[in-house]
Design brief:
heterodimer; A: 245 residues; mainly alpha; elongated; B: 304 residues; alpha/beta; Rossmann fold; Alpha-Beta Plaits; 2 domains; 6-stranded mixed beta sheet; 12 helices; 25% strand
Chain lengths: 245, 304
């Protein structure tokens, strides 16, 4: 790979797997919390989980924890630290094509998400089993669209933050409510109505629904998919402009 | 080639009508105190900043509108620009190498980084980092190289090391724009020096020309125990401005010619003292007054 994007992707992937923050939040955190929460509610179908097995509910939900960790923590901190340290200026001055960095970040974000998600399912399989997909095309589109929305959103967030520290602070502040209300926390049916309203406006909730519902046969979640798709388009366009060299 | 470059940040004018020509194969030093507008000028030349007005032509391109075409031909060592800490030296070179790149191993070897190939950027010393930036600046066979505050924060040994690297570059015929506030660095490395202050060019020329223009004087010092007639004879020498005597120590100041004349007088009166020293100003002495204290009127005189 000798194109600028290829060279960037290769270097960035190496950096990601050497970054303790990435290893912790994108790879370890989703697996550990999935194992704990998935085991807390048992494996018998439960009306609070729309009739699904709680363990399967969480396996199908947790891909978005990986997606959120990538988009809300990994990429913003990474990009902000690049801006802070003048790495982006060096890329710019060295003649890297204008959109090469933005595209490379998108590719790296999606690759990291894919690998971390695969790892999550590999760990889940012997413990809780991976449920079969009722509407596989819909579920896979939901995964792809959600990943693009959050990876682009992460690039955008990183391009707006003045420093790596502020990116980490804001990223964690966005991540944990999204994680607890929109993906890996209690199911919506046990939340109070106020909390459920808050959960509904979180982008991660929509992405989780657009994956989990067709996966477990709870519905098509078309509205959620449209919202996630719109977010993906807007975030990608704005992120590409903001992260252009 | 730059004509009448101007750039403001808010109400502050940083570059105020700069003209600059750099010829192929030349090492040109842009010197001046912090805030003189040097870095902003080279950033405009590289298309990293958009000037408010002025004409720029770099390697046939307009950096304001053709930065994408221009940048592949430029090598740049930027001020205040790091690399990811966990990226290794070898990987860094691979990342920046385009299809035009020269042999990276040879470059790393030339800059003494071969043994650090597998070390992360974060573990390199200040001097090693600057040498790696030099490697990156030269990697893709640039036609024009910008080096901005290359030796800032380096210890003297590391500084000499980096200087030697730039000198080799010069000897190979590279065209280099060196931004610095270290006048000794400019004197050692540059064919031509452009002195800037307050966003304007004060004077430009070869280091020796600038010394001639702004610091022609010389000081001769020695111990004299011979005949007192020497004092009067020295005062009559052409070019001598002052003769000061403290006990047996004499200090004679004047223009450069006095070095020969004072020598002749010493030979004539004899015996020639064995502690004779001659001090001639360097570029630093020549430019310190120009950069620090000159009034606009004096600057105009100096340029004229």
């Amino acid at each position: 790979m000798s194109t600028a994007i290829g060279r960037l992707v290769r270097a960035e992937l190496k950096l990601m797997v050497r970054d303790p923050l990435v290893l912790t939040f994108v790879f370890a955190f989703p697996i550990v919390t999935m194992l704990i929460i998935g085991g807390s509610f048992g494996t018998t179908p439960d009306p609070d989980f729309a009739g699904a097995k709680p363990s399967h509910w969480y396996v199908a939900s947790y891909l978005t924890v990986v997606i959120a960790a990538t988009g809300l923590i990994m990429l913003p901190v990474h990009l902000a630290s690049y801006r802070e340290r003048g790495v982006l200026r060096r890329f710019q001055a060295s003649g890297f094509p204008r959109f090469s960095f933005a595209v490379a970040q998108l590719v790296v974000g999606l690759l990291v998400t894919a690998v971390a998600s695969a790892l999550l399912l590999i760990v889940a399989a012997p413990v809780y089993g991976v449920p079969g997909m009722h509407l596989p095309a819909r579920a896979l589109i939901g995964i792809a669209v959600g990943a693009v929305a959050f990876v682009s959103g992460g690039v955008l967030l990183g391009s707006l933050m003045p420093s790596a520290r502020s990116a980490q602070a804001v990223g964690l502040l966005l991540f944990f409510p999204s994680f607890l209300l929109g993906s890996g926390g209690p199911p919506p049916r046990v939340m109070g109505s106020a909390l459920r309203h808050v959960a509904d406006v979180l982008p991660l909730t929509q992405v989780t629904k657009s994956i989990r519902d067709p996966w477990l046969g709870l519905g098509t979640a078309t509205n959620s998919l449209i919202i996630a798709g719109a977010l993906a388009v807007v975030a990608t366009v704005v992120a590409a402009r903001r992260a252009a060299l | 080639m730059i004509r009448d470059l101007r750039k403001r940040y808010g109400a502050r004018t940083v570059v105020d009508g700069v003209d600059l020509d750099v010829h192929q194969g030349e090492v040109v030093g842009l010197i001046g105190a912090n805030g003189a507008g040097k870095t902003t000028t080279v950033e405009c030349i590289q298309g990293l900043r958009r000037p408010d007005s002025g004409t720029l032509r770099v390697l046939g391109y307009d950096p304001t509108t053709q930065a994408d075409q221009l940048r592949p031909h430029i090598g740049s060592q930027l001020q205040d620009s790091a690399l990811p800490d966990r990226l290794r030296v070898r990987e860094t070179v691979e990342l920046f190498a385009t299809e035009r790149a020269r042999n990276a191993d040879e470059l790393l070897d030339r800059f003494g980084l071969t043994s650090r190939r597998n070390n992360a950027f974060g573990s390199l010393s200040g001097g090693e980092r600057q040498r790696l930036f030099l490697v990156l600046a030269l990697l893709n066979r640039p036609q024009l190289v910008f080096l901005d505050e290359l030796t800032q924060g380096l210890d003297p040994a590391a500084r000499r090391n980096v200087w030697a690297a730039v000198a080799r570059l010069r000897d190979e015929g590279a065209t280099v724009v060196l931004v610095t506030h270290e006048l000794d660095e400019a004197e050692v490395l540059c064919d031509r020096v452009v002195a800037m202050r307050g966003g304007r060019v004060l004077d430009a020329g070869a280091p020796s020309e600038l010394i001639d223009r702004h610091a022609k004087w010389a000081t001769v010092r020695f111990t004299w125990t011979g005949t007192p007639e020497l004092y009067a004879d020295l005062r009559a020498v052409a070019g001598v401005r002052t003769v000061e005597r403290i006990d047996d120590r004499l200090e004679v100041r004047g223009d450069r010619r006095i070095i020969a004349y004072v020598g002749a007088e010493l030979v004539r009166h004899g015996p020639v003292p064995d502690d004779l020293t001659v001090e001639v100003p360097d570029l630093e002495a020549a430019l310190l007054g120009l950069l620090d204290g000159a009034t606009p009127e004096k600057e105009l005189e100096a340029v004229a």
